[in-house]
Amino acid sequence: MTSPPPFAWDDWYEMVGGRSIRIPEVTDLLQEIYNHQYPRFDGEVAAERRRFGSPADAARHLKGKALEFGADIVGICEIEPSDVYRGRVISDKYAIAVGQRMRWREFQVVPSKASAIECLRVYFTLGETVIQLAAYIRSIGHACKVEHPIGDSDLLHIPIGLKAGFGELGRHGSIIHPQLGPLFRMGSVITSIELETDRPIDAGIAKFCDSCRACRKYCPPGAIPDERSPDAGKDHLGYDRYVVDTGRCFPYFATYSYCSICLPVCVYNHKEWARDFEGGETRPFPTVIMLSPAPPTDLPDAERRHTYPKIRR
Ligand code: SF4
Ligand code: SF4
Prior knowledge:
Layout: H1 9-15, H2 24-37, H3 55-68, E1 73-78, E2 94-101, E3 109-110, H4 113-139, E4 144-147, H5 157-163, E5 168-169, E6 175-176, E7 184-191, H6 205-208, H7 214-218, E8 229-234, E9 240-241, H8 246-255, E10 287-288
Parallel strand pairs: 3-10
Antiparallel strand pairs: 1-2, 2-7, 4-7, 5-6, 8-9
Helix pairs in contact: 2-4
The protein binds iron/sulfur cluster (2 copies).
One iron/sulfur cluster is lined by residues 172, 219, 221, 223-224, 244, 249, 252-253, 259-262.
C-alpha cells in the first residue's frame, strides 16, 4: 500500500453519534465553502498560452501571484503516487502548495468557539487564495486543478507541504513551520507547467520533538504517541514517524469544537508568533480545557483506516 484511503468523514462522524458541533459562524463558513467556492473550482483555460523562460521563472511568477492572492507561505513540489489518496487519479506533475497562518489570539482558550471559527475562517480565506491562483493560471492558458484545504481533496496536504519546504512533521502529526509553528492551514493548486521545485527543510524541529512532549501531555484522549513507530514509514528526514491515534483523537475533535489543543500548546508557537500581529493582548500559553474523552473507536474495516504513507525522500 503506497497511499491511504480518503478520510471517511461521514463514517467517522456516524461512529461518534453524528455532528454535534453547532456554532452558527462555523455553519455559515461551511455553507460559503460548499455553495460558493466548490462551484468555482473549474473554469475555462484561455486559448493563448503564456510561455515562461525557464522553470525557475515560472515558479517565481506563480509564487508571487500566490502571495498576492493571500498566501503567507508558498512552495512547490513534484507529486508522487504516494501523495494521492488511494482510488484517486491525478495526472498533473506539480503541486503549488500555499499556507495561511491562523491567528494566535483565537487559540488562547482551547477547545473553544473562537478556535473553531478561526479554523474555518482560514479554510475559507485559503480557499479563496487557491481558487484565485487557479483562475489566474487558467487565464494564462494552462490547465490546473484546485486542491481545497478542507474536506475531500485528492492530494494529501501533509507530504506535499513537507516536500514543498513548509517545515517538519511534529509529534502531533501537523507540520511545524519555523516561524508559523503549526498554526497554519494548507491547500494547493496542481498543474503540469514546468516548475522549479523547493526542498524539504531540516531545522532540527522534528528532532526536538523527541525530547519535548507538550502536545502529548495536553492531549485529553492520549492520542499523541510517546514513541515513534518504526512500522509507519519514514518522514521526509528519514525518521520513523509519530503516529497519532485517529480513533482516540476524532471523538474528542468531533465533540469539542475541533479540539485543536495540540496546535497552540506546541512550543514552536512560543517564538515570534506568540505575539499578536494585529496588536491584541495575548498570553504565551493557552488555557487548555481538558474534558473527559469518549471511549476510543475505529473504523471496523482496517483497509479504510487513515494513516499517512511513507514519504519517499
Ligand atoms: S486535536 Fe486534540 S485530541 Fe486530537 S491529537 Fe490534538 S490534542 Fe489530541
Ligand atoms: S509540542 Fe513539542 S513534541 Fe509536540 S509537536 Fe510541538 S515541539 Fe513536537
